[in-house]
Amino acid sequence: MADIFKHIENRSLAHVMRFNLKPQHFPESVADHSYYVAYIVSILCSLLQKTEYGVNTQKALEMALVHDMEEMFSGDIVTPFKHYSAQVEEAIAKVNKELIGDVFADLPREIYDRGMQWLEKYDKPWWQSIKGQILP
Questions:
Q1: Of 30, 50, 71, 83, which has the fewest CB atoms closer than 10 Å, so is most exposed?
Q2: What is the pLDDT of residues 40-52, one digit of tens each?
Q3: What digits encode the pLDDT tens for the residues 57-98?
Q4: So where are the chain's domains?
Q5: Is residue 131 classed as helix, strand or coil in its secondary structure?
Q6: How far apart (Å, rounded) are the C-alpha atoms in residues 82 and 76?
């Protein structure tokens, strides 16, 4: 049980700063970014609930909250570089797949497995990952 508290106390993403090659109005950490992504997702899910699409709000929010967890190891990689070529994307994905298990290592197995499911984006682009999980 002590390992769960170690995981909960980990605030490293609050100290990993996001950066861009374009001027920014203010500094933003990965934790700041993830919060606002989750907030926007909650609004979009509320709107989608009123349509014929339906949506798995819990899954969407969970994915939004952890979508950049690997950046506690890699930091924020500049977008033009990380998408420069298929070889660069594959190399980054390979390293992330090898390290991402460490993010959830201190959690009970069922939570670990769920967290790994949330981060399955390394197998396919995010817009393909949400099909069938968040959207029907």
A1: 50
A2: 999 999 998 888 8
A3: 988 898 888 888 888 888 888 878 888 888 888 888 888 878
A4: 2-129
A5: strand
A6: 10
Q: What is the CATH number of domain 2-129?
A: 1.10.3210.10
Helices 57-66 and 109-118 cross at an angle (nearest 10°) of 90
Alpha helices in the chain (DSSP H): 2-9, 30-48, 57-66, 71-74, 79-82, 86-99, 109-118, 126-129
Phi first, then psi: what are they for 57, rounded to 5°? -60, -45
- Separation between Cα atoms, residue 80 and residue 27, nearest integer Å: 19
Closest by alpha carbon to 38, among 17, 62, 15?
A: 62
